[in-house]
Design a protein that fits this description.
22 helices, globular, 45% helix
Length: 523
């Protein structure tokens, strides 16, 4: 019988979707899916076609041969299971002699455009372990140095998508809209935007992640709600979206696994700050998760990935063009991240702020950004003007329908919003001078919370979901000596905590020119 995992690996190495391979064999996508799951056996004619196309033996497809590298000749050869079991050889790269990564690296070094096949070969073989970190590092560092064209970035994104599964949202009965944030400090937007969108007749079917870094990601925040189920089966996920218009669950490792492996290497070798690599990383996950309408909150400032507007605009153009290549609608909203977003930073404490938002207690900057993002999500999902969409968003907040959807969603996934807890200890920081708040440092804020246990350095680290910080006053507000500025909640203190927290806020004699949190909308 056909070994489904070998067919799936071959298909991915060659950069083919199930539909594309089905077209080659003149069978349906569902048939290829059955072959890979080993619930259906190919005909002899199809086995011959597969053998010819992938340049492997039929016995390899049936699991009776192994592809190995002969140490004497350096050639890839097929040997029987009996020969393999009695040798000290290990399986090697598929089609390994047909393409050489060194040639591709040389082309990239000389700024010669790479082909789709070359990029796919590198990404797919690195993902399955046939290309080592040393060679991949050269490839990624050259991309950081020389960049990639739009076309090459499309191929890179596609190759990353094809290393994993693609979530099928076709069974969702209403238009689906997705939102992505490029990170930041105090970003609880997903918790607020999703119920608003769902209350207006659109669907949010979102897979979110935990965070590596100073504070937690969306899933960390949701896990601070007792009982909330971040893991659902695909069918449970789809059913809930159809029933109430909304579900947010944890990302699975099967969506664009190349991105996870490549990002870890980029972080290790200093190749994180590359616009084509950032764009392909974000968009590969968005497209693999089934999104067709995508609004991206692209944060700019010292508390963000992108520190200047010029680079942020370039990243936006790359992502919008990737969207066009894959027939996706993409809007990028550039927003300021020189100040933490909202009045709180942490995990459980941001859940509480999200609930308060629906109860009418809203930070102005957070409210402005929510209205702008939600309006663009409704506009793109319903194909109406942003102005009409904004009226719908404001109405949903005012008449309580968005609030009701928030509680309905949390309840549907088993969460007890009343059970959200903060850390047992509280420290209040008071103003040491009178004046106006001219700056709130996002990096100092997040580093303190990380040191108190709210962030993780490694993916398997446990974090303290109850640690958090609340700002009592915000930018440009006048304060007097002795006024309370910050409440910080913690379980175990750290050295110089009060001194460090006091340094987060800058107070000066004069007000500053207030900057709109919305920098630009790029479509």
């Amino acid at each position: 019988m056909l070994v489904g995992s070998r067919l799936k690996e071959l298909r991915r190495v060659f950069g083919l979707t199930q539909q594309e391979l089905g077209n080659i064999l003149n069978v349906t996508k569902a048939t290829i899916c059955c072959y890979e799951k080993e619930t259906r056996t190919p005909t002899l004619e199809n086995l011959i076609d597969l053998s010819d196309y992938f340049e492997v033996t039929i016995d390899y497809l049936l699991g009776r041969d192994y592809l190995v590298r002969d140490k004497r000749t350096g050639k890839n050869i097929f040997i029987s299971k009996e020969q393999y079991d009695s040798s000290n050889l290990t399986p090697t790269a598929l089609k390994g002699e047909s393409m050489k990564i060194e040639n591709t690296i040389e082309k990239l070094k000389n700024k010669v455009l790479l082909t789709k096949e070359e990029i796919n070969y590198i990404v797919s073989n690195y993902t399955i372990g046939n290309i080592d970190d040393e060679k991949m590092s050269k490839f990624l560092l050259l991309i950081k140095e020389n960049g990639l064209s739009y076309e090459e970035t499309f191929y890179l994104t596609e190759a990353m998508i094809n290393t994993g599964d693609i979530l099928d949202l076709n069974n969702i009965t209403k238009p689906v809209v997705d939102k992505h944030s490029t990170g930041g400090v105090g970003d609880k937007l997903t918790l607020i935007l999703s119920p608003i969108i769902a209350s207006l007749g659109l669907c949010v079917a979102k897979m979110s992640g935990r965070s590596l870094g100073f504070t937690g990601g969306t899933i960390d925040k949701l896990e601070s709600i007792p009982g909330y189920k971040v893991n659902l089966t695909n069918q449970e996920f789809i059913n809930q979206v159809n029933n109430i218009g909304l579900s947010i669950i944890s990302q699975t490792g099967s969506l664009a696994p190349a991105d996870k492996k490549i990002y870890a290497l980029r972080d290790e070798i200093g190749a994180v700050e590359s616009i084509p690599l950032i764009a392909s990383s974000i968009m590969s996950k968005k497209i693999a998760s089934g999104a067709s309408n995508i609004v991206i909150d692209l944060k700019v400032g010292k508390g963000a990935f992108m520190e200047n507007i010029k680079d942020a605009k370039m990243l936006a153009e790359y992502m919008i063009n990737i969207g066009k290549y894959f027939n996706r609608k993409v809007i990028c909203v550039l927003s300021d991240m020189n100040t933490p977003l909202g009045n709180t930073v942490g995990n459980s404490i941001e859940v509480k702020e999200a609930e308060n938002f629906f109860l009418g207690r809203r930070d102005k900057r957070l409210n402005d950004l929510v209205i702008k993002l939600a309006s663009n999500m409704v506009s793109i999902g319903k194909n109406i003007s942003e102005q009409l969409a904004e009226l719908e968003v404001i109405k949903a907040l005012e008449d309580g329908s968005a609030k009701n959807k928030f509680y309905e969603w949390i309840d549907a996934q088993g969460g007890n919003i009343k059970g959200v807890k903060l850390a047992k200890n509280k420290l209040t920081i008071k103003a040491k001078k009178s004046g106006y708040i001219t700056a709130i440092d996002p990096i100092k804020t997040s580093k303190i919370l990380s040191d108190l246990g709210a962030g993780r350095k490694n993916k398997n680290d446990n974090i303290d979901l109850t640690v958090g910080l609340a700002f009592i006053h915000t930018l440009n507000e006048k304060v007097n000596i002795g006024d309370s500025l910050i409440n910080i909640f913690y379980n175990e203190s750290i050295e110089n905590l009060e001194e460090r927290v006091s340094e987060i806020i800058t107070i000066e004699n004069n007000e500053i020119l207030e900057q709109d949190i919305i920098i630009e909308v790029i479509k």
